[in-house]
Specification:
Structural class: alpha+beta
Number of strands: 5
Number of domains: 2
Distance between the termini: 66 Å
Shape: rod-shaped
Helix content: 40-55%
Strand content: 15-25%
Largest sheet: 5 strands, mixed, barrel
């Protein structure tokens, strides 16, 4: 029983550590906490400790593991809610300037780079775009941005 208890303790600790580095929303961490509790019961009981000592050690390890898992889950959800700050996806919502335009496509300057752009769908009466007009990036398709004219409230910073 002692060997099985120690094996469960090791497996439980490894599952919690894996959950901390590869957040899977508790799929690995919850069984890890259960393994810690069962391992503590078996290890302490197998080493000759009383049932009270086994229960106290199991409760302490489960509480510690659940606390770590709660912290990991909290941090994992916080990261998921952050806005993208790197790569081309961060351009969505950015304001740029038209450099050259011939309906329905042209070139726009966004975040210091010149991009191919095309007009966004959904405008029943599309405004003409001219060099110098400000636009908003709505979507990215490869190296082409889908843009629409910027509205006045979007230009206030």
């Amino acid at each position: 029983m002692t060997a099985l208890g120690i094996a469960l303790l090791v497996v439980g600790a490894m599952l919690i550590l894996i959950e901390a580095h590869v957040p899977r929303l508790g799929v690995l961490g919850a069984p890890g906490v259960i393994a810690l509790g069962a391992g503590a019961l078996l290890a302490v009981g197998g080493l000759g400790g009383g049932i009270v000592a086994a229960l106290v050690s199991a409760v302490l390890l489960v509480a510690l593991g659940a606390g770590v898992l709660t912290l990991v889950l909290h941090k994992g959800f916080a990261v998921r809610n952050r806005r993208v700050r790197a790569g081309p996806e961060r351009l969505v919502g950015q304001i740029g300037v038209v450099r050259a335009w011939e309906e329905p496509c042209g070139k726009v300057l966004v975040d210091g780079a010149l991009w191919h752009a095309r007009r966004s769908w959904g405008n029943e009466q599309p405004e003409e775009l001219h060099p110098g007009d400000e636009i908003v990036v709505e979507r990215i398709d490869g190296l082409t941005l889908t843009v629409r004219p910027a509205e006045s409230w979007e230009l206030v910073r």
